[in-house]
Amino acid sequence: MSEVPKAYEPGKIERKWYDFWLKQGHFTPEIDHKKKPFVIIMPPTNITGELHLGHALTATVEDVMVRWHRMKGEPTLWLPGTDHAGIATQVVVERQLAQKGQTKEEIGRVNFTSLTWQWAKKSREDIRYQHQLLGASCDWTRERFTLDESPSRAVRTAFVRLYNKGLIYRGERMINWCPRCRTALSDLEVEHKDIVGHLYFVRYPFTESEDFITVATTRPETILGDTAVAVNPKDKRYKKLIGEHVTLPVIDKEIPVIADDAVDTSFGTGALKITPAHDPTDFEVAQRYNLPLVDIMNADATMNENAGPYQGLERFACRDKVLADLENRRLLERIEPYSHSIGHCCRCQTMIEPKVSLQWFVQTQPLAKAAIDAVRNGRVAVLPERFTKIYFDWMENIRDWCISRQLWWGHRIPVWHCRDCDGLTVSIDEPLTCMHCNSKQVIQDPDVLDTWFSSALWPHSTLGWPDDTDDLRYFYPGSVMETGYDILFFWVARMIMMGLEDTGDIPFHTVYLHGLIRDENGEKMSKLRGNVISPAEAINKYGIDALRFALTTGTTPGNDINLGKSKLESSRNFVNKLWNATRFILRSLDTEQLEAQTTELRPQRIEDQWIDSQLNRLIIDVTGLMEQFQFGEAEQQIYDFVWSKFCDWYIEIAKIRLRNQLTPSPLPFLVNTLEKSLRLLHPVMPFVTEELWQSLKQRLSDQSKMPSSIMIASYPFADHEVFAPEAERVMDSIIEIIRSIRNIRAQYKVKPNKEIEVRVYTDELLHGFITQANVVETLAKVQPLTILGRQERETTKDKALVLVLKEAELVVPLAGMVDHRAEERRLIKESEEIKGRIAQLESRLSDNAFLSKAPSHVIDRETQKLTSLQDKLKRLQWELSQLMSPSADN
Ligand SMILES: [Zn+2]
Ligand SMILES: [Zn+2]
Asked: Is 676 left (phi over 0), alpha (psi -120 to 50) or beta?
């Protein structure tokens, strides 16, 4: 029988058990139509960069759910996968090329894509390895990548179906444009930053008179694209001017003054310039009044032919030139400082240009309706519930979704343009000819789809849709979608829309939103602050189980998590506590053979009844909490039970019996509590529980009945027969009595092995207390201990402490408890030492030579030292005065 090592070294067992689980095939579920499966489709990890703590959190929360359901005997599928992450990946590979002095245009689309595939392959291996490192029990045989053939066919199929229904169209709409990446971006890919800029007040002269109207703008270069000036029809200042015409300064073009209710009279002068091709609000105004769109910029944000004399200038150079020209013509009235929020490309930090552009769109309103209903009528539950309000707000005001990207990395849009008739052929498979004129001159649209398009299909595309596969029939819809609350709209809402659209069914029953991870002080983790903890670093230092426990304990869905050194350390201490408790029990089993079947025994002694009853309560509470997705609280309760009730109390009490070889032996109850605690903890601490459970199994005589791994052992269930409220009442009081005595001993600085006298008075629990006398005597070092009924209490004149507890009174005579003389000598000695050091410091700090030479921080430090010594002396002297008149303590 192998000895369990003295200290827990996580690194030595983690890989061993992961490989064992993989080899046993426990991660791959069996389809059993008699049982309802539990299914989580893992959010596909972006193939860019290393896994951070957010990934570790996702993996842990999902693994906790998955391991728990698997232990409950449900066929459990956790399907892992990765996302090609369109723009994010393309920018990374472009940067690598740039280091070699190359651009993607120089090497061409084919070479660039194959280079990106190489990166993807390597990156996917890293991600798989890191998930395995975290203990993720996912089914690697079903692993998917968004660009795999099957999910790609799902993407093309969904596109074609939406197109044929008239829900995908191509049109000129306002989008976010990154001039560096030269692509449209989703709102999620735009980071807003507050910028201190300027508000320029520009005069637009009337064509018919000498007068002018002043408008305010933050982007004067867009004047070149203005097609109207708008005022509010209720604004008295401008009423007479509606319908007049003004001349655009600098390019002398005539534009009308129009009235629109959307104009905010309090912004600037109340008169707005309307630039439909470069501002979302202006675009909408232009739609209402049929104003022309004048796009003044090229893809790289240089000015195009519509900018007249400014053609060829870069956008900010153009701004300077326009301002200078306005100034020369005396049309720049004034400039005010102005802070506003400006979008930047989240991949390259270039300032976004809102711009009208010819793109592909999904008309989302018809899709949103069903998705709103699914949440409203409870078919999809969102946790925490407060996010449903945000979901409805967003879905009810949903805008069409721009799905085309001018990138090379991603799913090509399945549309072929005909050179002969200009017709479009939209097809799942590559067409040989144009469907309109049969011409062979068809070329595929160069754009790719927004990454979120394939992610939106993830819950069904991973299971084989559009084919009618066994997996799709059995595992769809999934059970839980677990992800961060920050992508509720970009991803979760779209999965619900597309799942309903493609399959007619919701993609999952529950959306579990986890919070963001912050540092110990609640600050956002960032490289700049230097407070980032990498999962690899935490694993090396504390072990995987401790990291998983720290990430999930005490957390609730939707709330941010503070994680720092102290939480990781306390988690590691917990793992060590469990390790040491198990070692003790295993050693006891080695010396004292456990009788077969004794684990089935009903407890006779109060403390055994108590631990059984408490464990049972724990199982009920934990099961209830897990069912309500309160994993953090469930883990906290297991922690409290194992640390305090089991290790600090029950094991300590059991030691007394084992030492004295009393019968009945507590061993069956030690083993039972340990074994069930390990199973309760397995979902969050898979490695250490497997290691300890296997060691325990080796030593049990009926081990043949135990499964091959704790991960397929059943999760503990409650047994109402073992409830023992009376035993719980007695033991709660005994613990309170021992704690009180220990406090008194600490307060009076009683030496650890000195015994003190205690008298306990109670009525109802008298008998129970008497059975525990030995426990109180041993654990609180009491001698003599008297336990009596309340009517037998005598009044004495001795000095004594009287404590009134929940079920008993405690009388502790003070005489002889403390060796006053020794204590006095110790305190006096310490006081004298401190006085000497104070004198030294005082003389130093009054020495002018020192004060004039020493740097100020040294003087500060010495002054602080002096204050703290003076404080210590004061407290020592107070303790001395207490010692001389102990009655003052009563
Ligand atoms: Zn960019
Ligand atoms: Zn054609």
From this structure: alpha
